Amino acid sequence: QVQLVESGGGSVQAGASLRLSCAVSGRTYSRYCMGWFRQAPGKEREGVALCNSDDSTGYGDSVKGRFTISKDPAGRRLSLLMNSLQTEDTAMYYCVADPAYDGWIYSNWQYRGKGTQVAVTS
To answer: Is the backbone of residue 89 left (phi > 0), alpha (psi -120 to 50) or beta?
Structure first.
């Protein structure tokens, strides 16, 4: 089993930066695919950023150029650096991991954290 625990959420003003972290415990492999999804109130859950098994990355259109995903070499911690935050970034952010899947469908990811809340005020 793999456990994912997110941290680093909080309330910030628009334009600020925030770094989210996801601690990985249990049986893991350094080449797991990992990523971040988010869900705002009343909206569908959407993919934010993915880090594939070969360490290539992908981003949702709304965060490109502002967010950066990174993973430590051992695959034990995933980070999301969020710059130039906007009120539209307010959401619950979820960490995901999977030994093989690396796509944008949240329900396909085998392991999912409980989330950390981010609130951006104007």
So the answer is: alpha
